[in-house]
Amino acid sequence: MRLSLKMALAALVAAIPALASAHPGHEHTTSFMTGFMHPMGGLDHLLAMLAIGLWAASLGGRALWAVPAAFVGTMLVGGGLAVAGVQVPFIEQGIVLSVILMGALLVGAARFPVAICAGIAGLFALFHGAAHGLEMPLNANGAEYALGFAAATALLHVAGIGFGMIVARFQAPIVTRLMGSLIAFAGVLLAFA
Question: Cα(80)–Cα(64) distance, rounded to whole angstroms?
Fold first, then answer.
């Protein structure tokens, strides 16, 4: 088994415990855990972040790290803007649109220069970050909360990358396109929810 496939499988296995406890109703005692659980609890966030990882894996090369890094970095900026009281317009619409468009990018096997792909990911991340920042509990430590939602986001990206690498290993790009269509369809349903 090649090293990259082993790493992909390890990433997926590492993501399972976090995904299993993603349902609401758990009381979290730290700001880090509150931030960590936030992306896990919303289908819109979960789908967009997995889609970013899948897209990065399908692009390969530098995009494998640049696209997720752009998402996490810009998401932190969006969270900081919200905490600072700066209004980011159309947050909910931007989040739902990110799910639909990320699904469409996967369906179309869209390939652009890495900088453009990172820019697309960053644009979507601004909305997700602003939502995380707005929903931060008043008693939370902002830095710990941000670290938590950044860690969860990165873990979801790694899970998407891992799945995408497994798909690539078996040379089954149709699976990535099928996942993209499911993600886009879920985004459309979220738009009307």
Answer: 25
pLDDT in tens, 86-133: 999 999 999 999 999 999 999 999 999 999 999 999 999 999 999 988
- Whether the Cβ atoms of residue 156 and residue 86 lie closer than 8 Å to each other: no
Placement of tokens 């979507």 in the chain: 124
Q: Determine the straight-line distance between the first and last CA of the chain, rounded to whole angstroms.
A: 43
In terms of phi and psi (left: phi > 0; alpha: psi -120 to 50; beta: otherwise), the region of 27 is beta
| Tokens 């909360």, residue located | 145
1/28 Cα distance (integer angstroms): 39
Global pTM? 0.82
